[in-house]
Design brief:
The chain is an alpha/beta fold and 239 residues long. Helix content is 47%, strand content 13%.
Length: 239
C-alpha cells in the first residue's frame, strides 16, 4: 500500500479560523470519494496564549512553548509536514522549526508569492498589530520585491477592532468600518489587500469578497496544503 501524506495542523489560533481552514481544504480538493481527501491531524490548541499580546508586551504569556510542543507531538503522531493557521504566530517560525524533522509551510511567504503571481504590484497589508509591528508581511514583500502599504495607526486601530472586538468576539463584522479601511488602501494606490489574519478570512467568506482585490492568506494556505499533500485542486481554484 502506498503511503499517503499526512498533514499536521497547528490550530486553535483561533478555533473558528481552524474550522474555516479545514472546511476550505475539503471544499477545494478535487475529490470524488472520501479516499480522495487529505489525511490530517488537527491540534486545536485554543488555550494557546494570544500572539499579539505577547509581541506587544513580552511580560505576557508566550505562545511559543505551546506551539513548539504541539509541532513535535504532530511529528511524533506521523505528520509529514505542518501548517500553522495563524499569520501572527509566524513570528515564531524559526523557533518552531528548530529541532523538527518535518517542514512547516510558511503561510506568509506563500501568500506574498501568490499575490505577486496574480500580478499585484502594491499590496495593502491587513493584519494584527503584532504582525504589523514585527514586519512579517513587510519583510516578505521586500524579499520578493513587491511594493506594500501599511495602515496608519488610526486605521490599524479599526482593523484590530474588527479582528478582536468583532470577529473573535463572535460578532458580525461592521462592513461599513471594513469598507472604510479598504477605501484607504485603494486611495494609497494598493491594487490588492492581503487578508493577513484568519479572522479577516472569515469576513471574506461571509461577505463573498472578490478575489480580484482580496488575497486571502487562509485560502492560499489551504491550496498550498492540498498540492503539497499530492492532491488536486478543483478547477475553480488556482495557485
Amino acid at each position: 500500500m502506498t503511503k499517503d501524506i499526512t498533514v499536521g495542523v497547528l490550530g486553535g489560533l483561533g478555533p473558528m479560523a481552524t474550522v474555516y481552514f479545514y472546511d476550505m481544504v475539503v471544499e477545494m480538493t478535487d475529490a470524488k470519494k472520501d479516499q480522495d481527501h487529505l489525511d490530517m491531524i488537527i491540534m486545536n490548541r485554543a488555550t494557546t496564549p494570544d500572539r499579539t499580546a505577547y509581541i506587544l508586551d513580552s511580560r505576557a504569556d508566550s505562545p511559543l512553548d505551546y506551539i513548539a510542543r504541539d509541532a513535535k507531538r504532530l511529528e511524533a503522531a506521523g505528520a509529514d509536514f505542518l501548517v500553522l493557521t495563524c499569520n501572527t504566530a509566524h513570528f515564531f517560525y524559526k523557533d518552531i522549526i528548530e529541532g523538527l524533522g518535518i517542514p512547516l509551510i510558511n503561510m506568509i511567504e506563500e501568500t506574498v508569492v501568490h499575490a505577486k503571481k496574480q500580478g499585484h504590484r502594491k499590496i495593502g497589508i491587513l493584519a494584527t498589530t503584532g504582525n504589523i509591528r514585527t514586519g512579517l508581511y513587510q519583510d516578505m514583500c521586500a524579499k520578493h520585491s513587491v511594493d506594500y502599504y501599511v495602515p496608519t495607526e488610526p486605521v490599524q486601530d479599526m482593523v484590530m477592532d474588527i479582528i478582536y472586538g468583532q470577529v473573535k468576539a463572535g460578532k458580525k463584522a461592521d462592513m461599513d468600518q471594513f469598507n472604510r479601511i479598504v477605501g484607504v488602501l485603494k486611495s494609497e494606490g494598493c491594487d490588492c489587500a492581503i487578508l493577513g489574519c484568519t479572522e479577516l478570512s472569515i469576513i471574506k467568506k461571509d461577505e463573498k469578497l472578490p478575489n480580484d482585490f482580496f488575497v486571502d492568506s487562509s485560502e492560499v494556505l489551504a491550496m498550498t496544503t492540498i498540492l503539497k499533500a499530492g492532491r488536486k485542486l478543483k478547477d475553480d481554484y488556482q495557485i
